[in-house]
Write a structure and sequence with these properties.
Largest sheet: none
Distance between the termini: 68 Å
Radius of gyration: 18 Å
Structural class: mainly alpha
Number of strands: 0
């Protein structure tokens, strides 16, 4: 089979598995997520399309879960798609997927906060809050970022992290005195 034929077969497999994300059987949906995770990077763009075009939140949820399981190859494309697509449902599920990716998504999420769009920054912050403790030290390091928006977002995100993040802000403020 030629490389083009192999790519065609992978693309067809991705589409089949994405279609199974709306199967009535929970086991079938879970198997589809596992298959998309196994396929990895070639499934990212079709899953982003599914996340954007899904007619219901169940399909969005399973597309987001598949993206989160793919992990690193999905981080940058997902953040870029969130920048390009202002739909709240898309961004909400995108943020959930990024938040489930854990520590590996922290730096790209903080970097993306340099956006002029406040609503996008809010969703990025939600993802960081979902990540929790692994985001604290990288956020601390950005409290004095050259970009004023990133500094502000780092502070607000630490604040939103509550008991885990507020002491970092207080400690930083004491160092300033």
């Amino acid at each position: 089979m030629s490389d083009a034929g192999g790519n065609m077969a992978v693309a067809e497999k991705v589409e089949q598995e994405i279609a199974r994300l709306s199967d009535p059987s929970l086991d079938v949906r879970h198997a589809a997520v596992a298959a998309l995770q196994e396929i990895g990077e070639p499934a990212v763009v079709p899953l982003l399309k599914e996340l954007a075009e899904a007619g219901d939140n169940d399909r969005r949820w399973y597309a987001a879960v598949a993206l989160s399981r793919i992990g690193v190859p999905a981080i940058a494309p997902l953040i870029e798609a969130m920048k390009a697509n202002p739909a709240q449902a898309f961004r909400r599920y995108g943020a959930a997927a990024l938040g489930e990716m854990g520590a590996k998504a922290v730096t790209p999420l903080i970097d993306a906060m340099a956006s002029d769009e406040a609503e996008l920054r809010g969703f990025l912050s939600q993802a960081l809050c979902r990540i929790g403790t692994p985001a604290i030290e990288p956020l601390r390091q950005r409290l004095h970022d050259a970009d004023e928006i990133v500094r502000s977002c780092a502070t607000l995100t630490l604040w939103k992290l509550g008991e885990a993040g507020v002491p970092v802000i207080v400690e930083d403020a004491r160092k300033e005195d």
